[in-house]
């Protein structure tokens, strides 16, 4: 059965933030939060590549910070 969801804004608020980012080049979240999210997702992917082995989030965070620094916009 199809269950109607509560009326919400959907993707509109996110799309507004994305458009504002493209205009201002100022991210809507702090860089540290973006790096943490990237590191978490990368750690999950690395664990999967290693057959479910535990992966150090600190190691992945260090790699993520290095990668972010190398791609920083001027």
Count of DSSP E strands? Answer: 0
Radius of gyration: 17 Å
How far is the N terminus from the C terminus? Answer: 51 Å
Order of helices and strands: HHH
Q: Give the oligomer, counting copies of the same chain as homo and different chains as hetero.
A: single chain
Decide which structural class fits the backbone: mainly alpha
Query: What proportion of the residues form beta strands (DSSP E)?
Result: under 5%
Unreliable spans are none
**Mean of the pLDDT scores?**
87
Task: Report on this structure.
The protein is mostly helical. The protein is built from three helices and no strands. It has a domain at 29-74. Helix 2 (31-49) packs across helix 3. The protein is flat.
List the helices and strands and how they pair.
Elements: H1 12-24, H2 31-49, H3 57-70
Helix pairs in contact: 2-3
In a nutshell, what does this entry contain?
Helices cover 62% and strands 0% of the residues.
Keywords:
single chain; 74 residues; mainly alpha; 3 helices
